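User: Reviewer 2 asked us to show a designed sequence for the structure in our supplementary figure. I'm pasting the structure tokens here. Could you produce the per-position amino acids so we can include them in the response letter?
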């Protein structure tokens, strides 16, 4: 009897555990190019979190939970990984990996317009991430808009693909693959306009389109719902605060005035107002540091940038690279070589996110410093 009771207890406990985990794998859209894929056991991977203050018009939610992060390329609208804990694993290089019950691999590819980017000395790589959960494969193309024949072959067994709303990209995949558009304007969230357009125009002549009522979709055995699957953005995503819009307006007016008057003092006063209006965003500090650098006021440059690193909790990578380089050059001009070395060393260690020209400059200074 006691043995029967023990077996029954184990059975009930096991059944209870299974019922807790017996959920369906799903995908969740945040906004822009950001998605969360969650396995049936609850492991979560976040793909391409965007930076809150970089032309999109809306901030990134502060309560998005994830076990690890995948980055296709280090642009502000795809790489806001700095806003997460340093303990959160971030993958940004091609390879094959496993995290708990999620398998994933990255395919090295190129960013759209890569030829021009390389001519300007900019990074041009783009990692296509393929995530496998519960035998379902989802590919995120990042900003690779025109796949090569080899890349299409590598993605032939994909079930879902996340790509730009572009006919040429859509045509690369068979009708058995569900296409999830991303990277378009979201006027339902923000009045801010940028280089993108609404998804509606692209969808006008499309057939087999499913528009979801929300921002989540569960993967089921009958996964084939339509050719194109369109999500609503997360209700957690909010428009920029008024203070930030006000700060941008001051920058716009002051920049226009400076272009004709060349009055540096007036521009600096305006930038101080920007910092006052929006002290926790980088624009005011960045513009001020750049102007002071042009005026060769190197001590002031150092003060402004160091203050920015304390006051601003979230800086996109490209802006931080520019500021770190400016800071290194200011220290170098003041003959504070150790401080300059520390900044150049930081830049050199960030080879995955730093442009080749800056890496070469850092490498040359580091070599000279260490050999003297």
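Assistant: Here is a per-position design you can include in the supplement:
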């Amino acid at each position: 009897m006691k043995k029967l009771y023990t077996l029954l207890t184990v059975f009930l406990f096991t059944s209870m555990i299974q019922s807790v985990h017996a959920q369906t794998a799903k995908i969740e859209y945040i906004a822009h190019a950001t998605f969360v894929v969650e396995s049936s056991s609850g492991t979560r991977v976040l793909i391409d979190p965007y930076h809150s203050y970089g032309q999109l018009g809306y901030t990134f939610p502060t309560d998005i939970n994830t076990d690890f992060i995948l980055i296709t390329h280090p642009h502000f609208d795809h790489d806001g990984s700095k806003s997460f804990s340093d303990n959160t694993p971030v993958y940004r290089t091609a390879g094959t990996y496993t995290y708990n019950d999620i398998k994933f691999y990255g395919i090295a590819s190129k960013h759209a317009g890569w030829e021009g980017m390389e001519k300007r000395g900019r990074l041009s790589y783009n990692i296509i991430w393929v995530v496998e959960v519960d035998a379902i494969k989802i590919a995120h193309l990042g900003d690779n808009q025109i796949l090569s024949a080899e890349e299409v072959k590598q993605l032939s067994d994909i079930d879902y693909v996340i790509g730009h709303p572009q006919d040429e990209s859509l045509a690369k995949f068979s009708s058995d693959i569900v296409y999830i558009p991303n990277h378009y304007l979201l006027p339902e969230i923000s009045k801010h306009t940028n280089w993108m357009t609404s998804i509606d125009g692209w969808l006008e002549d499309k057939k087999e389109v499913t528009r979801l009522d929300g921002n989540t979709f569960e993967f089921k055995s009958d996964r084939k719902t339509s050719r194109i699957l369109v999500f609503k953005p997360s209700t957690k995503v909010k428009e920029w605060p008024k203070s930030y819009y006000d700060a941008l307006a001051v920058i716009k007016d002051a920049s226009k005035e400076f272009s004709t008057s060349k009055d540096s003092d007036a521009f600096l006063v305006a930038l101080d107002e920007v910092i006052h209006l929006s002290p926790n965003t980088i624009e005011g500090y960045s513009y001020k540091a750049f102007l002071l650098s042009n005026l060769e006021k190197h001590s002031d440059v150092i003060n402004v940038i160091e203050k920015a690193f304390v006051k601003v909790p979230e800086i996109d990578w490209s802006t931080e690279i520019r500021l770190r380089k400016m800071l290194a050059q200011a220290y170098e001009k003041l003959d504070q070589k150790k401080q300059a070395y520390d900044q150049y060393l930081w830049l050199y260690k960030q080879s995955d996110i730093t442009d080749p020209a800056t890496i070469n400059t850092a490498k040359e200074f580091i070599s000279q410093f260490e050999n003297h």
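For the response letter, you might also mention the following. The mean pLDDT is 91. The radius of gyration is 24 Å.
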